[in-house]
Amino acid sequence: MKLSHSPASPYVRKVMVVLHETGQLDDVELVPTATTPIAPSAELIGKNPLGKIPALERDDGPTLFDSRVICAFLDARANAGLYGSGARHWEIRTLEALGDGILDAALSLTYEARFRPEDKRVPDWMEGQWGKAARACAALDRMWMSHLAGPFDAGQIAVACALGYLDFRHAARDWRKDNPALAEWYARIESRPSLAATRPADPR
Predict the structure, then answer these.
(1) Taken in order 48, 89, 175, 13, is the CA torsion positive or negative?
(2) Low-confidence ranges of the chain (pLDDT < 70)
(3) Which residues form a coiled coil (predicted)?
């Protein structure tokens, strides 16, 4: 299998964490891929018409995307149980969606600053994006700590990667300030080998 990959992508990082956790790193070739919403990679578009990473090419089926699909596929392939069963399965799925929602909002902020000229940026829109991330962090701190304290799963992977991305690109906004329980959990979980091995380099 081949994974369209960029070490700075938080969505790719989710997949890489799952590969580490499920012992499948040696089954996947990492294909360095540079792509943006303005200048998508032509090679990537041939695999994923949306022009987004990650995309997982398989030998026995169509290319898979997005990160949630790929993570679920890899979990099922290894029978690793990262998505649980019964009622917990739906909690994990919801938690993963919440983590990905933080990423969606934070990445929108990153793109706004990187690709839109400063005089054309809309501050209210940017604050609206941060508001999504801030509300999600508050909900995690208030409602999800018992789940986050439980067995490591795909929902926790998504949340950890989302918080790591906030540190990576938006550290000045300080998500920890109003979320002490969440900050304490993240301080413990970020040293887990799969997360430590996939931590992005200095933001540039």
Answers:
(1) negative
(2) 202-204
(3) none
Determine the Cα–Cα distance for residues 26 and 43; give it in Å rounded to an integer: 23
Interval 150-197: pLDDT, tens: 999 999 999 999 999 999 999 999 999 999 999 999 999 999 999 999
Structure confidence at residue 202 (pLDDT) = 59
Closest listed residue to residue 56, CA positions, set 16, 105, 83, 111 = 16
Which domains are assigned to the chain? 2-78 (3.40.30.10), 86-192 (1.20.1050.10)
Q: Which pair of tokens denotes residue 135?
A: 């509300």
CA pair distance 14, 105, nearest whole angstrom? 16
Alpha helices in the chain (DSSP H): 10-22, 42-45, 67-78, 86-115, 123-143, 145-148, 154-170, 180-189, 193-196
Residue 33, number of CB atoms within 10 A of its CB: 20
Integer-rounded Cα Rg, in Å, for the chain is 17
The one-letter amino acid code at 113 reads A
CA–CA separation, 144 and 31 (whole Å): 35
